[in-house]
Amino acid sequence: MAFKRNRAINLPAPYLRRIWLEPARITDREAYPFCLPLLRDDFDLSFDRAITIIVGENGTGKSTLLEGIAALAGYDEAGGGKGYMPVDHSWALEKMGGQLSSALRASWLPKITNGWFFRAESFFSVARYLDQMAQQYPLGGPPPDFLSHSHGEGFLRFFEERCQKQGIFIFDEPESALSPARQMEFLKLMRRMENIGHCQIIMATHSPVLMAYPNATLLRLTKHGLEPVTVRETDHYKVLREFCDDPDGFVEAAIEE
C-alpha cells in the first residue's frame, strides 16, 4: 500500500514489524557482512515495541545491522533521511548496510519512510550540509546553525528539530557525542517521542544510562545472535558498577592486567 510523502498515518509505532534474511539473495556467505555470526543462521528479528535497543561489543555487527535497516527505510547508510546524501560520502563506501539490505526482507505495518538515521561519526557532515542549505534557501526565521554549538548541544538541538514528527528513527551510539548529563536529556527526548505515539526508535548503544530506558525491548548481540537481556545482565552495566564501587581499585587493576 502506497502513501503520499509526509502524510500522517493514524497507527501507533512500531511500523517496521519484522526483518529477516533471504538466503537466496546472498551471493557469497563467506563475504562480509554475511560472515558475521549474527547472520550465520536464519536471521529473523521482530519489533513488537516502539523502542528497540541493541547492545553488544564492538565488531559484533550492531552498526552494520542498523545500516541495513536504514537502507530498508530508504535512508542513506552514511546517515540522514530519505533522499539525503551527506556532503562527504566517500567514507561510507566501505559501509555494508546496502549489501545487507539487499538480502533482507521486511514486513511493515504500514511502510514508513519519514524519519532519520543518526550517526555520531557523520554528524558534522550532516549538520554542515543542513546549515548551508538553511542559509542558501531560508524558510523564515533564523537558520539552525547547528555547528555554532558544542558537539553535545548541537546533537540535542539537531535531534529536537527532527524527532517531533511521525517516522522511524535509527540511532547508532548517540552517546558518543553526549556527556552523562546530556544523556539524561536524550532520555527525556526519547520519552517525548514515545508519548507522541508515532515514533519508532531503533538504537545501538554502549551506554547503560540509555539502555535502561523503561519499556523498551533490550537485545544483546553476541556471537550466538540476538537475545533478550536486562540492563543488569549486560557487561556494560557490570563494568560500570565495578568502577563506581571502587574507582581507584578498578583502574589500578585494569592497568596492571
Which helices and strands, and how do they pair?
Layout: E1 16-21, H1 37-40, E2 44-46, E3 51-56, H2 62-72, H3 97-102, E4 104-108, E5 115-119, H4 123-136, H5 151-162, E6 167-172, H6 180-196, E7 199-204, H7 208-211, E8 217-222, E9 225-228, H8 235-245, H9 247-256
Parallel strand pairs: 3-7, 3-8, 5-6, 6-7
Antiparallel strand pairs: 1-2, 1-4, 8-9
Structure overview:
By secondary structure, this protein is α/β, with parallel strands linked by helices. It is about 35% helix and about 20% strand. The protein is built from 9 helices and 9 strands. The strands form 2 sheets. It has a 6-stranded mixed β-sheet with strand order 5-6-7-3-8-9, sandwiched between helices. A 3-stranded antiparallel β-sheet has the order 2-1-4. GO terms for molecular function: ATP binding; ATP hydrolysis activity. Keywords: Cell membrane, Ion transport, Iron, Iron transport, Membrane, Transport. It is found in: Cell membrane.
Percent strand equals 15-25%
Tell me the count of domains.
1
The total strand number stands at 9
Structural class estimated from helices and strands: alpha/beta
Order of helices and strands: EHEEHHEEHHEHEHEEHH
Which word captures the global form?
globular
Low-confidence stretches: 1-5, 145-149
Write down the Rg: 19 Å
* Strand line-up in the sheet with most strands: 5-6-7-3-8-9
Q: Give the proportion of residues in helices.
A: 25-40%
Tell me the major beta sheet. Answer: 6 strands, mixed
Count of helical regions? 9
Gap from first CA to last CA: 58 Å
CATH superfamily: P-loop containing nucleotide triphosphate hydrolases
GO biological process, one term: double-strand break repair
GO molecular function, one term: ATP hydrolysis activity
Domain AAA+ ATPase: 48-236
Keywords: Cell membrane, Ion transport, Iron, Iron transport, Membrane, Transport
